[in-house]
Amino acid sequence: MIDCGLTTACSGRASPAADAERLGAVIEIVRRDLEMSIIRLFSVLALLTSSAYPQEWVMNCIPDSSKSGGALPSDFIQRIEHEVGRSFNTQVPTLMFRNVYSGVQDSLTSLRGKVVLLNIWSSGCSPCIEEMPTLLAVQSELAARGFVLFTLSAEDTAKQKQFFAQRKLIHAGVVGSMRIQDYEYPFQYLINPAGYIIDREGILRDFWLGPKTQDELVEKINRYL
Fold first, then answer.
1. CA 10/CA 21 separation, integer angstroms
2. Cβ neighbours of residue 7 under 8 Å, at least 6 residues apart?
3. How far apart are CA 11 and CA 15, in angstroms?
4. What φ, ψ does residue 37 adopt, rounded to 5°?
5. Alpha-carbon span 8 to 142, nearest angstrom
């Protein structure tokens, strides 16, 4: 229920200009909520698919709208970043996943004690492919200081192994596979790539959409090492 507010408007003491301002504020709130509901709808629809989601549903944070999924408006990306930002300084979910190389079931809590960069990606996402060597370079640079790169995809283990083997990429961090319907808030948005920084105590500290340079990533991670 929307509060009359508006008390003055309901009592007849507000001016038309004040009423218009309040109405504009209410409309803006409704619009923001509707945008986030659309993103959540994609997550619900994904429950109807198999262990991976159709590539045409993947929305890539890239300026070239000719690429798969097209581009997202910058203000829309900012809305999602703001939404996830509400979870900053709180404990992240357990997040159960399958380790691609060991084949065992694992959880995010097993990485407690390290600063984690969780990167959600897919092999069909152009910016994800371009960013992967950068992520692996950050892993090499910061691993000795208690950092670990954790890449997570809804793609199966065989497809992810093939991706790294074909490109001769050595992933010294953690490579995870998890069904899209098992992703929990704040990890459930179908937008790649997405980055999350989780500190040694399992607290979410940072989040962004789209690829970053090595210097940008190192600067962000260094704050928590």
1. 14
2. none
3. 11
4. -65, -35
5. 57
Q: Per the confidence metrics, is the pTM higher than 0.85?
A: no
Helix or strand or coil: residue 139?
A: helix
Residue ranges per structural domain of the chain: 7-46, 55-222
Cα 198 to Cα 119: distance, rounded to the nearest angstrom = 11
CB 96 within 8 A of CB 107: yes
Alpha carbons within 13 A on the beta-carbon side of 19: 9
Give the pLDDT means over successive 10-residue stretches in the chain (225 positions).
40 62 66 57 45 40 40 67 83 91 92 96 87 96 96 92 94 89 71 91 92 95 96
Domain 55-222: state its class.
Answer: alpha beta
- Write out the two tokens for 91: 């404990």
Helical spans, DSSP H, in the chain: 7-11, 16-46, 74-85, 126-142, 157-166, 214-222
